[in-house]
Design the sequence.
């Protein structure tokens, strides 16, 4: 599927050079494919709701784990109280309060979280890029395995209603 997106992007890139267009939105069966083209870069993202998520550039691949249930109620690096039922995570690779779309590479499931904590420094040596709340791990469907390969994409913060 990614090959199809890349071929499509190349075709659109050549078209945009002559038509002076700077973005495309293509609707497929289950996803909306958002391709943004400007003079300096090309961004391709598979979005469930193209109007509510915009990838801002930084992409990190690695391994995700999830918090132990006994950490529920402890203080996070932002000062708030950690709750396993919220969609949050810890990362040493991203700034606090960064919004991230996490994709489980094994099954394609995604979840949007906010980074509100830091991981133990030893996690980097183990290849971990994010430690998720139990709710986020459940949405990504890796509770039984405990670890999974993920892709993190920094996104714009959701608009407040």
Sequence:
């Amino acid at each position: 599927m990614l090959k199809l997106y890349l071929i499509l992007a190349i075709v659109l890139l050549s078209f945009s050079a002559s038509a002076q267009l700077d973005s495309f939105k293509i609707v497929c069966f289950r996803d909306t494919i958002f391709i943004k083209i400007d003079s300096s870069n090309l961004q391709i993202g598979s979005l469930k709701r193209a109007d509510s998520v915009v990838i801002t550039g930084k992409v990190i691949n690695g391994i995700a784990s999830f918090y132990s249930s006994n950490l529920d109620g402890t203080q996070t690096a932002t000062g708030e109280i950690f709750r396993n039922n919220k969609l949050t995570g810890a990362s040493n690779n991203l700034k606090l309060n960064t919004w991230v779309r996490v994709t489980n590479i094994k099954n394609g499931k995604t979840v949007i979280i906010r980074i509100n904590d830091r991981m133990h420094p030893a996690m980097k040596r183990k290849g971990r890029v994010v430690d998720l709340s139990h709710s986020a791990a459940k949405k990504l469907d890796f509770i039984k395995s405990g670890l999974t390969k993920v892709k993190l994409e920094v996104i714009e913060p959701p608009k407040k209603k």
About this structure: The chain has a mean pLDDT of 75. The two ends are 34 Å apart (CA to CA). The chain is about 20% helix and 35% strand. Residues 2-19 form the longest helix (18 residues).
